[in-house]
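Researcher: Go.
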Amino acid sequence: MKRDVVTRGSESACQPRSGFVLAVITIAIVLLSLAAYNYSGTMLVEHEATAMGGRDVTARTAAESAIEFAATRILERDYDDTIDLYNDPDVFRAQLLLDSSVDRGRVRYTIVAPDETNTSTGSIRFGLGNENAKFNINRLLELDALESALPAEEQLGLVYLATSSIPNMTDDIIDAILDWLDSDEDRRPGGAESNEYEGLSVPYPCKNGPMDSIDELLKVQGVTPDLFYGEDANHNGILDANENDGEQTPPFDNADGILDLGWKDYLTARSRERNTTPDGEEKININMGEMTSLYDAIEEEFGEEAASYIVAVRLAGTEYMTPGTPEAESGIQDQISRNDIDLTVVSTYQFTSIYQLIGGPSNPTKMLTGVDQSFESPWPEDAGTLLNVLPDLERMLTTTDDAYIEGRINVNQARLEVLTVLPGLALDVPADLPDAILSARPPIDLQSSSSSITARRNTAAWILAEGLVDLETLRNIGPYITTGGDVYRFQAIGHFDAGGPSTRLEAMIDATEYPPRILSVRDLTSLGRGYHPNMLIPIESSQ
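Model: Structure:
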């Protein structure tokens, strides 16, 4: 009996213990399940983050590939002048870098630059921007030196005239820029030198030298970010909604429906052109000192008529040229001639541009026959000669031995505000010339016609051929204009077909060196996507 009681007691004692163990096991399972769920969720988040990080890297790689492609395309242009670097959607828009069976995995790159012809809301083109489309700020010092050399009664304020078209530019800021560029510490009335800059909370010296980058302008007294960047907060060259809503959202703007650009879009410190032939050989300097060498070089390339005319102009000038400082006389006094032209005469005339070769006779020059003779230009003032022959002259001839030609303005690409600089650079330039040049440009959206028109305008003499200026005006502005330029700026965008991250890089490439050198790359991704995918990917490419 006692055993039975004990057994029943033992059984009754075990009942609650079994329930407790079951509860513990249940709780443990729940906790482990929650831990596993949490771990799984964490791993999913990490997986998605890794995948997104990988897509970010892929987009960046695509943008960087676009920059390398642009450098290669610039190099190829030297050997194929049919290559269009200005606007070629077939080459620069939505180029497939990595294919995929799903849109989300398809990776492309696009290269864009601002459309300078759109002066209101802004637009883009698929190609490279040229720094020669802007006014080179370092030329102000050159203009200031030219002005200082003139008698006081002839000084016109060239520096202030040349920059009067740049929006919001003031005389005080011009003084400050000149003080930044010149080599002395003499402060102009509205300017600043090292004393002013070293007194700032973050002190720095005055540069007292040419700017290496237009970003240096932000260090100059009086220059603010608003002046430098304008309303284009995300640097995409397009008037976005937040840039046209007054003070509702940054940036604060005037809500006038027009994209007010900053000085970075009008000014540069990097515009330059190679002073060599397309294959890298030295050009013939028509201002060289040795007349026999000049004659022989021109005759070999262009013939006797061209050689005689150019040498005659160097020796005797023309009706529109004034003599300069004579070249040093050679110690050789023996009679030297080419085509009976007496080459012992000291050269006193210099060409300022290739366009002075167009039309008109030389003044009478000394001949071995004893009778002075004039020579006619073999390049008459007609459209066929200007458009078909001048490009060859510009490729082979130069007026300087400098390795580069600095700061000429590209009349095919410069904005109106930059073109308006021209009447301030040279005398007798019509005030309406900038508007005429801009009106003569074909709109970007008419790609087939714009390409053919642009191809014929590969010499700045087209403004004479098409009647925008007369020959005298072309000669006056010749030293300041071009249709070339070997420093390029553009945005490279890496993007996916269907959503996903994108990378936007602004790059500058210097093609005055061989091979072209990437000067700078600036990441603009933090400023936003910049361009809607529909702008970058044509409908047929996304299908």
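Model: The radius of gyration is 34 Å.
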